[in-house]
Amino acid sequence: MTFHLGFELPKQESRELNHAVSFLTREEVRIIKRQIRGNSLLIDQFIGRLELFVNQERYPSNAVFVQKIRRRLELLMEENDTFRKVLWKHFQSEDLTAAHPA
Known about the structure:
Strand content: under 5%
Helix content: 55-70%
């Protein structure tokens, strides 16, 4: 049995989402970062597949399954760009409020 003093326990993070506030909550930032990381891994996998099929296996670049991989890759990259823009705007707004407190 482990005994912890009150000050040794980790603080519980708020897991609440709030769409009414212009700032992102910590949970929303965590979700966006996790989504960016996950999409980045998928993008790497799709690039590897394209490289394998087109460059190594010499499939034609206009093959149907290659076009499907490219469309999925474009979608993932656009999604990541959107998430990064949202995160960047959030960090900029945090910096502005920290520099000029009300």
